[in-house]
Description:
Layout: E1 3-7, H1 9-16, H2 23-38, E2 43-48, H3 49-55, H4 60-69, E3 74-76, H5 80-91, H6 100-111, E4 116-118, H7 128-140, E5 147-149
Parallel strand pairs: 1-2, 1-4, 2-3, 4-5
Helix pairs in contact: 1-2, 1-4, 5-6
Amino acid sequence: MKRKVYIETTIAGYLTARRNSDLVIAAHQALTVEWWANHRHRFDLYVSDIVLCEAARGDESAAAKRMVEQQDIDVLGLDERARELARVFIERRLIPATAVEDALHVAVATIEGMDFLLTWNCRHIANAEVAERLAGVCLELGYRMPILCTPEQLMGD
């Protein structure tokens, strides 16, 4: 059985964006393209309604490219358990109230039993200190949080 990966919005953004002049961002884009082309097939991929809403925002042409890349990925809904878990993350100041979508991504991936949450959001999601505190809350509430990682960290053989 394949392991399950929740694809957060930044992945489609880096996958479809014009090459950035910032060397770090350009490297992240290249790693995303590499993972998408050569590693994603090892996993069962999922997005959520939240990802699709975020991906549809902004420039119409760019949004269309993001949506095309996600069209064959299973979509997870947002249920009351996920909303409550996200609320706890925000209430305990693990994720700021201004980043509700980030809290919802982690909550949906956790509630739905994902093995990994793939993201380039290293501020609120794939951040070791934040992840440690989020995982503690999840454990306290009876959940196992997925591993929060970047494409580079999920490029095994």
